[in-house]
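Changelog note: in this version the structure field was regenerated for every chain. One regenerated record is shown below for reference.
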Amino acid sequence: MMNNTWKNQCNYPAGTVITGKWHRHRYEIVRKLGSGANGVVYLARSSFGYIALKISMDSVSITTEVNVLKSLEKVQGSALGPSLYDVDDWDSGINRIHFYAMEYIQGRELLAFIKEKGLSWAGVMIVQLLDVLEDLHQKGWIFGDLKPENLIVAGPTPKIRCIDVGGTTMKGRAIKEFTEFFDRGYWGLGSRKAEPSYDLFSTAMLMINLYYPKRFVKKEESLKQLTAIIQGNKDLIKFESVLLKALLGKYQSAKDMKNELLVNLSAGERSDGQRTTRYAPRYKKKRMRSFLETVSILLITVILYTLYIFGYIL
């Protein structure tokens, strides 16, 4: 009920102008972009250009999210989340609304991007995500509510970006927001403690979701069900070892998971666990072609030399 009350009280039509109490920046709402457990996000016009405006009646949640964005901005050369432009309050005439203005990231949601570009991009996007998570974890934060809806692929050179840090939680605390399909607590495969392995479980489920866009519900013993689903897809099965380790919490860091995923992306993996280099047949063909070319050159050289000698004698 409380969440619904917040959404109703933070629901404003296009054209509404929000003016910051302290910094006096003006924001004109264009349309709603989405809503979460503690607030609503709007596209708005401002002196910064088009921005995403997160508004809420919960000052604590707003403060926490702002701290996350500030922390992410300290990672040099990285674009983990949106840039932060402004933090302020607004007296709506009825309530005091807390808000922050951030970069509006244009792009496609991850699932839509994969549907358009093909599953060959799935591994690449997950590798990028693991880089993002490694930086985030190094700063002391766990993403928490990791799902395709919170990830955008932006730019002419596809790059994954996080657009909603509402579920981000400090390490060691309890995850404050989650979506069941990506939550290891729902699957009975771990706690909701904010730690790297929680995000890596969600990453494994995210990758499964890319191959199974229609999410499924838990129907039997979780690990057995998820293993069968992974093995039931001829493309996903080559990542089975990585996915199962992530589901079981066996990775110490996102970097470790990324390194093993890169191995699987560059090499095929047989169902019996034996790895075979994908490029071996091509390499053998290349060696055979080189050998035949060498023999041909030698034969041509011998023939020309013989003709030369024969002509010389004549």
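Spot check on this record: The first helix runs from residue 2 to 9. The two ends are 108 Å apart (CA to CA).
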